[in-house]
Amino acid sequence: MHSQCDVCGLHYEREPGFFFGAMYISYAFSVAIFVAVGVALSFLGDFSLEVYLLTIIGVIALFLPFLFRYSRILFLHIFGGVDYEPGYKKKVSEVG
Ligand SMILES: [Zn+2]
């Protein structure tokens, strides 16, 4: 993950340890995946507990890069006081 924005120079980690809170969002995502895959498997057939656990762990491991980034992005937007401003780059180039 970049430490700051290439366009506007925003430092993403608003304060030391800011992204610890993103773990809670990542956890919520993991639980959602856990439930979704578990329910999907229960509809697909009658599997053993090992199949459930290995499949769920595999799917979560597959999504880890996305969970990591999107939980941080969501946390930054919800608690970091950061709003996306589409015309920012244009404005900066107009000024100087
Ligand atoms: Zn930016």
Task: Provide a descriptive summary of the structure in words.
By secondary structure, the chain is mainly alpha-helical. It has a domain at 43-80. The chain contains 3 helices and no strands. The longest helix is centred in the middle third of the chain and has 31 residues, at 49-79. The chain is elongated. The structure holds zinc ion. Residues 5, 7-8, 10 line the site of zinc ion.
Our measurement of the CA-to-CA distance between the termini, rounded to an integer number of angstroms, reads: 28 Å
Quote the average pLDDT. 88
Distinct small molecules bound, one entry per kind = zinc ion
Beta-strand percent range? under 5%
Structural class: mainly alpha
Number of separate strands: 0
- Helicity, as a percent range: 55-70%
Specify the biggest β-sheet: none
Q: Which of globular, elongated, flat, extended, rod-shaped describes the shape? A: elongated
Structural features:
65% helix, 96 residues, 3 helices, binds zinc ion, mainly alpha
Secondary-structure blueprint of this entry?
Layout (H helix, E strand, L loop, with lengths): L21 H23 L4 H31 L8 H8 L1
Helix pairs in contact: 1-2
Bound molecules: zinc ion (ZN).
The site of zinc ion has 4 residues, from loops.
